[in-house]
Amino acid sequence: MVIRVNNELLRGDYGYVSYIKKHNAKVSVVLLIGCISIFVIGLMVPEHLRIFMNIFSVLLILPAAQFIAKFLGFYRYQPLEIDKFNNLKQLSEDFLVLGELPIIRGKQNYFLRTMIIAKTGVYVLVDGFDDVKKNRRLILKTTEALTSIIKPKGFKQNVIVFNEYEKLYMELETNIKPKCFNTDDQELGVIAREFILKTQ
Fold first, then answer.
1. pLDDT band at 171 (very low <50, low <70, confident <90, very high)
2. How much of the chain is helix, strand and coil, in % rounded to 5?
3. If we measure between CA atoms, which residue out of 142, 119, 113, 115 comes closest to residue 16?
């Protein structure tokens, strides 16, 4: 079970990207202000204390740089529009619809705009490119990365990746929804947990 702190948004929640951008920006600013303040104060204290203040100031730079890097890493990602997300959620009670899900697998980062888990498969929407070859490569790599998360656990669902919302919606409405009934919600939840916990 995942415990939330206050109004914290977690991976898979709609609005996670906006939330994490703000969070990383706030922490970065606080750490940078702290770093600069300690350095300036260090210039005004006696020589024997100045060294410790400078060292502490330099040490604060490292976590600040990490949060700045996280902020920049998320900056270009845009969430799916709320009405489109709600349309997917209302499509069927037999679907488990997740919001934004960033994935880090090795040195490769992926960003899933939404993920729909059904008993017939896992359906994912990613940001597309104008270049057809780049799109094919992105879809292939994302499919491989997600498959490597659930297949070793014995789940049989195939991962199908889309880079266009309209195609995803039509596939779910026309071909997938009629096949999904009497879905085991608990199994869908277990699959979702695998993605949420393994994508950190």
1. very high
2. 60, 15, 25
3. 113
